[in-house]
Amino acid sequence: MSNNGYFKPPSLVLSTIGLSLATFMQVLDTTIANVALPTISGNLAVSSEQGTWVITSFAVANAIALPLTGWMSRRVGEVKLFIWATLLFVIASFLCGISTSMPELVGFRVLQGAVAGPLYPMTQTLLLAVYPPAKRGMALALLAMVTVVAPIAGPILGGWITDSYSWPWIFFINIPVGLFAAAVVRQQLAARPVTITRQPMDYVGLISLMIGVGALQVVLDKGNDLDWFESTFIVVGTAISAVALAVFVIWELTDEHPVVNLRLFANRNFAVGTLVLVFGYAGFFGINLLLPQWLQTQMGYTATWAGLAVAPIGLLPVVMSPFVGRYAHKFDLRILAGLSFTAIGLSCFMRATFTTEVDVTHVALVQLFMGIGVALFFMPTLSILLSNLPPQMIADGSGLATFLRTLGGSFAASLTTWIWIRRADMHHAYLSENVSVYDPHTQQALSQLGGAGSRSYAQLEQMVNSQAYMFSTVDYFTMLGWIFAGLIILVFFAKPPFTAKAGPSSSGH
Predict the structure, then answer these.
(1) What digits encode the pLDDT tens for the residues 448-460?
(2) What is the CATH number of the domain that holds 347?
(3) Which range of residues forms the domain containing residue 217?
C-alpha cells in the first residue's frame, strides 16, 4: 500500500481527523487552564503565583519528554507510540480532574506533560507519511492551523467550563477526545509498515537535562516567594541547575547519539530561526497568560468573559493559515516573519495604552489585530529554521525547535507572573507614598468615598492596588513590544533560499 514513499490509509479524511484531534487536545491543554487559574488557585487555597505551577509543570515535563520522541519511535514504531501516548494522556487527564490539592494536581500535570511529549512530533511525522509529496505543504498548514486554533479555543472553553460546571471538567473533556483519536488512528494506520531499530539511549544527557531544566523551573517558580538569592534554597537550586546544564551541553556536543542534537546550531538558518521561534512563542505565551489573569483579578471579568475577550486572536489565523501554507514560498520568508513580529509588537504597544476604563470591545479588537501576526508566525519561522538542514536531520531539527519552543513558553509563564507582581508591588509602594490623610487630594478622594471610615480606606487601597497592577501591565506590554521589534531585526540574519530540502522519499537526494 506504500507508493512514492508514502502510506495510503483507507480514509485520508479520518486519518487526518484522528491525528489532528490528539494534537488539538494536547495544545489545548497548554492554555485551557489559563483562565481557570484564579478559580483553581482559590479552590485549592494557594496564591496566584503558585497557581502558575499548573501551567509550568505541564510545559516543562512536556519539553523534557520531547527529545525522547525520536528514540522511542525507533524502538516501538511511530503509530504504536502515538496510540500509547494518547491513551496515557487520557489517564493523566482523568487523574488531574480528580486532584484535591495543589501538589497532587501539579504532580499529575507533570505526568500529563511527560506522556504528551511524543504527540505533536508523531502527528507531524504521520501526517507527512499519509499525504502524497505534492500535498505535504497543505498537511503542515493544517497542523499549523490546529496549533493556532487550540490555544484560542482553550481560554473560551476553559472559561465556559469553569463558570458553568467546575474546573476538573477542563481535564475530563480530554477523555472522549483521546479515546476517539486513538481508536481512529489504530484502525486507519495499523497496516503501516514499521522499521524497528535499537539505538542506545543517552542516559547522561537525559538525566542532566531533567535535573538542569527541572531545577531552573523550580527556581523561577519559587523565586518570588522566597525572596530570590536571599534564600539558600534558591542559591542551591541555581547552582544545581547551572552545573547540570553545563554537563548537558558538553556531553551532548561530544556524544555519538545525543538525546538533543545541539550541533544543529552550527547551521546559521537553524540558529536564527530557532531563536526567533523561541522568543516569539514565549512572548505569545506570555500575552495569553497575562491578559486573562489581569481581566479576571483586576478588571472583575468572569472566566467566560475573559476567554471571550482574548478569543478573537484566533479568527484571522483560521482564515489565513491555508493561504499562508499555499503561497508563503512565493515570498521572502524573512519579510513574512518580520510582518508577523511587527503586528504582534504593535498589538503590545496598543495594550500599553490601556487604562482601567478599557472596555471589552477594545481588548477584543487588539486581539483580532494580533491574529495577523500569529497567522504569519509559525510557518515562515519553521521553514527558515529547517531550510538548510540535510534530509536526515529534519526530524532532529524539528524536535529540537519544538523542545526549545515549549521550554520558552514554560519559562515565559514563570517570568511573566514574576515581572507582573514585582512591578505591581513597586508601583504600589510608589503610589502609597503619595497617599496621606494630610494630603488634600487624598482627603478629597476619601470624602467622595463617604468619609474617613475603614470602608473608605479599604476602597482607596483597592483603587491604589488596581492602578499599581494597571501600570505593571503597561510596563509588561511595553517591554514585549520592544522584544518583538528586536526579533524583526534578528530574523534578517537568516540567509535565503528557504526551500526545504527534499525528503529521503524523493529521488535524487
Answers:
(1) 666 656 666 777 7
(2) 1.20.1250.20
(3) 202-258
